[in-house]
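Exercise 7. Given the encoded structure of a 82-residue chain, write a plausible sequence.
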């Protein structure tokens, strides 16, 4: 069974289907050369973030299947420098 990805980038904007999202799983979307991250928490609240780091954006665009490991790498490097 193939699950439909619950986040789509369209010409009018980003289309979300939170009912198809798995709790605490990160989904990404590229819209207008920006990368947005979405996830639904245990209370079914939807969270949205924009990836601002240009190196992270480039790496995510080139390797979307490695999204979580890329984010973890940038979080750890930012945490260790602050």
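Solution.
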């Amino acid at each position: 069974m193939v699950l439909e990805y619950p986040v789509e980038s369209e010409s009018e904007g980003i289309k979300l289907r939170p009912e198809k999202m798995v709790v605490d799983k990160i989904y990404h979307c590229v819209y207008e050369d920006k990368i947005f991250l979405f996830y639904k928490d245990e209370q079914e609240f939807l969270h949205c973030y924009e990836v601002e780091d240009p190196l992270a954006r480039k790496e995510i665009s080139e390797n979307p299947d490695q999204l979580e490991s890329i984010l973890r790498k940038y979080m750890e490097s930012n945490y260790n420098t602050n």
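Remark. The mean pLDDT is 89. Students should compare their own answers with the one above.
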